[in-house]
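Page 47, continued from p. 46.
Same chain as before, 606 aa.
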Amino acid sequence: MQRFFSTVLLFLLLSGLQSIFAQKNSFTFSGRDFLLNGKPFQIIGGEMHPARIPAEYWRHRIQMTKAMGCNTIAAYIFWNYHEEKEGVYDFSTWNRDLKKFIKIAQEEGMWVIVRPGPYVCAEWDFGGIPSYLLKYPDLKVRCMDPRYMKAATNYMKALADELRPLQITQGGPILMLQVENEYGSYGNDREYMKTLEKTWRSFGIDIPFFTGDGPTNFMLEAGSLPGCAVGLDSGYDQGCFDLAYSRNPGVPVFSSETYPGWLTHWGEKWQRPDTAGLLKEVRFLMDTKKSFNLYVIHGGTNFGFSAGANSGGKGYEPDVTSYDYDAPISEQGLPTAKYYALRKLLASYLPKGKSLPAIPEPVKSIETGKIEMRLINTVWKQLPPPTPVVQPLTFEALDQNQGYMLYCTKLIGHKSGKLVITQLHDYATVFLNHKYVGKIDRRLGENSIELPASDIAEPLLEILVEGMGHINFAQEIIDRKGITDRVSLNGMTLMNWVQYKLPMDEAFISHIGTLAGMPDPAQPGFFFKGNFQLETPGDCFLDLSAYTKGVVWVNGHNLGRYWNIGPQQRLYCPAMWLKKGYNEIVIFDMHVTEAVDVQGFAVAGE
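Result:
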């Protein structure tokens, strides 16, 4: 009898659990309101991007967001991070595991909004579009170009398979999905926008949709869709909302990007927006019970070559490696003064007797002490087989999407004078007969340099080109890398080149050996290596201020680009890329010819 009652009890318990897990919530629109399970719901969102955060820290950052007073996580999804090679999708390794990220958010009691593009901007390389598409010379993006749409559709199908079971309609936490991003700032192809919406639906995405645009009439007309909620970037006052209501009536409007901080380019000062203005804006949104999303609550890091660029200034403004963004949660995950101010404000709107969760403990940070560096090799001894070309080709034309490229030719006819690189993308060091002549920097609007005379019959011209971030916003996003047009000397177009691909990816770096003897200091482009011991790994910031321009790897992981023009001088290295005991750092610098020691600090510094 006891066994019978135990069996019945177990059956009832399992039945109850199944009933609980089978329960599905609902998220719908009713006029101007978002409804969660039939009741008005105010989205208080904090945006972060899984690709910019070590997966080991996802839960910590989500807990930080909840403790500040948010109820929703918004996340851009970067197409080119999940399809680095054409047709090969990765949704499972490390911080590409979107299912894991979304499930952690659900476990922490947070709702989720996904922003999958195909285009996202986000100060991310090419706005998330895979740069392999740039191998097509006449490619058009963010429109009905069949090559773009085929690739985008394949991506959407692969991503939909990941997202479908995590929708609120399936018991998951995903409330809404954004169709494209700020399209009204770029184009007016209504068929394109409608096709994206229909494509998501055809792949089983049945949650509500929204669009996101600046609060102007022309942007909202070109970028919004009937039946989709309107996101405003940003919705800072009632006038913004009234405009959106008139432009697309009958749907909710919210501030999809309320900015607590801002982005920073190389050569600028760190952006530090006013906190008082932010608090005034958030207070307005809370007082009027309007939904909003803080872009970003935590920025993270543009590891590797993922940082994007803008087309302002003199035509090109590359973003720094850090995506700290002056956000409430710092690059390393620490609460800032802005965080505490927002937490206090949002807590004041809680129902009586309710309080916010405790702020999580910070992640451990360490200092490394001095790391002795030594010169180990030169890029000139690491050249792969060359590719002969009549005139220079872009990186993408040779199926290389990031890194560096070396262009070489012999000078016939003119041997010295004014060398012009038409449409250099983005930074070059120029050599004549293996001797450094100077640099050309697209950021400064430079495109020429004087070549000195030599006594060699056919002088050798070498141009080492670094491709920095692909432009991610506005009309100049078709931004191929390398020498994108031609090279001329005193007006004569130089022909018959060879090119060497230098992707500086993990495979390339893993084969950097040690050179016997010392390289020629007149031909910089050197690799430096250092080793250091750790008792206990922790986060740190490597100070590269003694170096000029290049990339740094720790234990084979690319921390990103550094540049002595600042403002960033220290690169973030997360603890999981360090090991107890022996660690290795490799630096590639385009200018420095002598090894200089480096050090890891516990803080980012200025």
